[in-house]
């Protein structure tokens, strides 16, 4: 997939990479929607690939894409055969316009309505440079791939690491032990990872850890990391860069630029500052926090919640074959992210929640992220996610799903009282469920699954007049 | 001038900065050619500025530009008054097209034919980013200004240092002592400097030196640095980045990318590799070494000399009001640099000489740079420049101008024999003159002055049949 990030655009074609967790139904739907002509499948995913092609043949009269396998076994590797037999000289097919598409990235769509984000050459070039700069990737880095390359083109870093003459350490699967081993063995200088990857590192058993050969810069994004997790990994020698973006912004779009004077602040304060999403990077014209109804910017008060919006070169060309969704997402000339944020007096933005994750209880907005941060700081907690549970009286109440650390214990009452000591009472969860959290392939917690579970619980308040 | 790099483009105007060494005649010619509307002059240059305006008034019926002074004395500072009285809110006048001009940089022209290089917003943006990346300027640098900001817009670093949130240390004049003092006092992380600045550092008396607070990255360019000088400054803790470019390429356009495996090579070999000009940076489409007659690329043999040429986004829009010169310089779709170079087997280019500096003796091309490098390695030599002296028999012979170190001594015969031991005999100078070398304001040796002197000496060979 790394090589294809270069070969496919240089052949004048568009690269479309699929999530390796998709099932045959989704793969078939995306093959059809994308109109893929060539379908490269790693051998361990061939069953899904073949089943998807069969579905496609059954449902469509169009020509099927050519299937080529990529295999660890050189004997049956179509891809390596292709490379071996290619002419030594090849004239690159340059795009006619820098706004021509370079890649198509399917994001949170469904089989009946795939959502394919179109990247163009100009945007990819600029976002690659901006990501490399935001993340202090100097010449000749060694980059550990924990972020999948199928996700926002690996935050543009297949291009970015090559641009800086770097070495790529690729992993098919990883654990904390594999991460520590790879860093020590290869002298890793940079890696990426969702906050759940940071959490995995922070909670690794001592036996799985190895000393770092030098500072390891970690770009984290996808969800705001809890301050406690930030602190824990920095104590191990990782330097965390907090970034924020969407598939629709080619991945990274803001960065929490670190001020040297903050080094002297207490650890808790440093973690609080670093958990903010910061400023737009140098390749996008701007990030703003706006009232989506009036399109007016919120004041720089750290309080007023609005919607984070972007405009500029590194906003997608649009959703493939979906002009309505494209126009809706770009209403008023700004990309609407669906993320709720505030603007601090120093100009840094901070996410409060996904619009759909906010909990509205008794008319008050509760940021699930703020409640999660507090639960995360409980010593027994490994992971936490907070969603809305429907309520006859309050409308919604916060419901926490919590995974405890191995060997640790805590009760529902303890977690609730821990939160009530640290938050306004209305923000503390009223329900705590102890269980493993469902994850996406990029390590994000699947809140829609938890929301379904909370909905199935029904109202906590039994009469409209009871007081909690 | 730093602030004006932002204020002028943001006001929708074009920034045109003059060399502070220009006399009233040249300033008057450039004011006229550029059509400047506002003329900002530092108070210590007011005599030249007023004389230039008087000349302009005498020679032209056009309206004179408005004169505004910039003064160290707040009482009489038009510029600070303007800033103080400006409205608090100002709407940036964005360029209508990214190809609109941002600055006009006069380079080696004459009063009768000024040569004004037009930069556009797109090129300046891209070259700023490429320079920051080529030079490993990570977040929050402290930059020492030894390269004048009027030269190629200070290699784009007024914009680049701001982009990375840096601190600027500005000097009106400098010596080696001032450089060492500034580095120690301000914790300088990056600086620029022509090879003559490196030489000044390498030869600073012990009393003028101070230990560096950390590695100081120095971007050098303008002329290829002699290997001995590279070695000497690296021993002091400077990390040298060898770059190459022209005013016509927004300054930096290639960089000698350092391969980690070269760290293990002997010092002489490292210096030899680092003296090469390398590859094009990420913002220009390409550098090539071509035969200017056929426009064919030279082979990657490190031997065949051709002309270095560029094309891509960071090649100038053109020469202002001079379409003929623009078309001539861009013949065949590539910017012709006038610099002679070879391409090494590893793809790195290396300058051999300016086309006009090459010495042709008995039909052989002699690179003045190669001869200078050898003379520089003589322990008594502080500076050296080699030019052609006309010769009745050989056509030309190499003539060296040498400045010795304080207290050191060497004779003409010693220098010649030192060179003959290290170079083919025909390359060794036949004449050595001991004197101070004339310099431009950016520290380049003014070879045209020396060439005049050598021409005035007449032929060394007295009869057409004599053998030397």
Give a brief outline of the structure.
The structure is a homodimer of 468-residue chains. Chain A is α/β, with parallel strands linked by helices.
How would you describe this structure to a colleague?
- The structure is a homodimer of 468-residue chains.
- In chain A, helix 2 crosses helix 3, helix 5 crosses helix 7 and helix 9 crosses helix 10.
- Chain A is built from 15 helices and 22 strands.
- In chain A, the strands form 6 sheets. The first copy, chain A, has a 7-stranded mixed beta sheet, sandwiched between helices.
- The radius of gyration of chain A is 23 Å and the shape is globular.
- Chain A is α/β, with parallel strands linked by helices.
- The C terminus of chain A is likely disordered.
- Chains A, B: This is 4-coumarate--CoA ligase.
- Chains A, B: Its cofactor is Mg(2+).
């Amino acid at each position: 997939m790394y090589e294809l990030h270069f070969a496919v655009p240089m052949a004048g074609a568009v690269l479309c990479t699929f999530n390796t967790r998709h099932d045959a139904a989704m793969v078939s739907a995306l093959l059809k929607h994308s109109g893929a002509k060539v379908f490269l499948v790693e051998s361990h995913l061939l069953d899904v690939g073949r089943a998807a092609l069969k579905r496609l043949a059954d449902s469509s009269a169009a020509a099927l894409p050519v299937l080529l396998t990529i295999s660890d076994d050189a004997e049956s590797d179509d891809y390596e055969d292709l490379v071996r037999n290619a002419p030594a000289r090849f004239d690159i097919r340059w795009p006619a316009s820098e706004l021509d598409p370079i890649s198509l990235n399917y994001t949170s769509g469904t089989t009946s309505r795939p959502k394919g984000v179109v990247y163009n050459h100009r945007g990819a070039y600029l976002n690659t440079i901006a990501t490399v700069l935001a993340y202090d990737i100097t010449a000749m880095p060694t980059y550990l791939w924990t972020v999948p390359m199928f996700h926002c083109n690996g935050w543009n870093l297949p291009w970015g690491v090559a641009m800086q003459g770097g070495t790529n350490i690729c992993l098919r699967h990883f654990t904390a032990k594999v991460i520590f081993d790879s860093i020590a063995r290869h002298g890793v200088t940079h890696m990426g990872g969702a906050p759940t990857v940071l959490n995995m590192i922070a909670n690794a058993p001592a036996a799985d850890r190895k000393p770092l050969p030098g500072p390891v810069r970690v770009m984290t994004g996808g969800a705001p990391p809890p301050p406690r997790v930030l602190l824990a990994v920095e104590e191990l020698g990782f330097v965390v860069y907090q970034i924020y973006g969407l598939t629709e912004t080619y991945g990274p779009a803001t960065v929490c630029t670190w001020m040297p004077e903050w080094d002297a602040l207490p650890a808790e304060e440093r973690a609080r500052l670093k958990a903010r999403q910061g400023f737009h990077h140098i390749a996008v014209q701007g990030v703003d926090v706006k009232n989506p109804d009036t399109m007016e910017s919120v004041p720089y008060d750290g309080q007023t919640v609005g919607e984070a919006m972007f405009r500029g070169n590194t906003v997608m060309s649009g959703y493939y074959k979906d002009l309505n969704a494209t126009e809706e997402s770009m209403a008023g000339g700004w990309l609407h992210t669906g993320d709720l944020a505030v603007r601090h007096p120093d100009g840094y933005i901070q996410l409060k929640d996904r619009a759909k994750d906010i909990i509205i209880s008794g008319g008050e907005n509760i940021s699930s992220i703020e409640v999660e941060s507090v639960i995360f700081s409980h010593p027994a907690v490994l992971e936490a996610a907070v969603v809305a549970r429907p309520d006859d009286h309050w409308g919604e109440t916060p419901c926490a799903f919590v995974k405890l650390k191995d060997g640790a214990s805590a009760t529902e009452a303890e977690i609730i009282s821990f939160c009530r000591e640290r938050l306004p009472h209305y923000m503390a969860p009223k329900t705590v469920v102890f269980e493993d959290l469902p994850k996406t392939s990029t390590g994000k917690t699947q809140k829609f699954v938890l929301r379904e579970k909370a909905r199935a619980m029904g109202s906590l308040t039994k009469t409209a007049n009871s007081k909690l």
